[in-house]
Design goal:
single chain; 214 residues; alpha+beta; six-stranded mixed sheet; two-stranded antiparallel ribbon; 24% strand; transferase activity
């Protein structure tokens, strides 16, 4: 796991991350609820396909040639994906309000529930909503178990990110982390099985969660 140090500055807790913990990805996931997209009955003024083309993005190949849910920048540095929570089968669905398709995934509703505002570091800044860090950490534990066997390195990265966040949040937001953990465990036996299986591979994170659960 990446090096993490905790330092106190005038009564506040600061977090210092090692270089490996600061590794960034060029992927950008945009999530929305399908029912909300239908309910608001709104449409974007400019089709997102035109917007992406102007930013030098091209559609990525899809199993359904009539639906595009991923765009890749010509430089190859950035991948944009549209996602939505799956109500049943995981498949491609339409998001009419945005004029795009999206991949429906299980467990995503847990991740994007009760998001928090943040600023994306682009030019003068862009206001966005992002998942709560404690939900992101627990979701990463689940995703790591759901990946295919050939994605072992990605699973390890997911668990490393989860463990890093759990270590930090146990110091900075223990109550929120405990609530997110309890929420996920209460969502059914399959959820618990995946979380426990992932934590078995990260005993450091399991030990921290055991402490905050009392």
């Amino acid at each position: 796991m990446g090096t993490v140090a905790f330092r106190h500055y005038e009564g506040e807790l600061g977090v210092v991350l090692g270089a490996d913990a600061l590794a960034q990805t060029g992927d950008m996931d945009i999530a929305s609820f399908e029912r909300l997209s239908f309910a608001i009955g709104d449409r974007v003024e400019t089709p997102l396909e035109e917007v992406f083309k102007s930013l030098k993005f091209a559609p990525s190949p899809s199993l359904d040639p009539q639906r595009t849910w991923r765009w890749t920048q010509s430089s190859g540095e950035t991948l944009v994906e549209f996602l939505m929570p799956a109500q049943g089968e995981e498949s491609l669905r339409d998001l009419p309000a945005l004029g795009v398709s999206a991949m429906a995934l299980r467990h995503l509703d847990y991740l994007i529930e009760d998001p928090i505002p943040a600023v994306s570091l682009y030019r003068s800044g862009v206001l966005v909503q992002i998942p709560r860090p404690e939900r992101y950490a627990i979701h990463k534990l689940i995703v790591a178990e759901r990946r295919r066997q050939g994605d072992r390195s990605k699973s390890q990265k997911d668990r490393a990110q989860a463990a890093l966040l759990i270590e930090v949040l146990a110091e900075t937001r223990p109550d929120e982390l405990r609530e997110a953990y309890e929420d996920a465990l209460d969502r059914g036996p399959r959820w618990r099985e995946q979380i426990v299986a992932s934590l078995d591979k990260r005993p450091d994170a399991a030990a921290i969660l055991a402490v905050i659960m009392g």
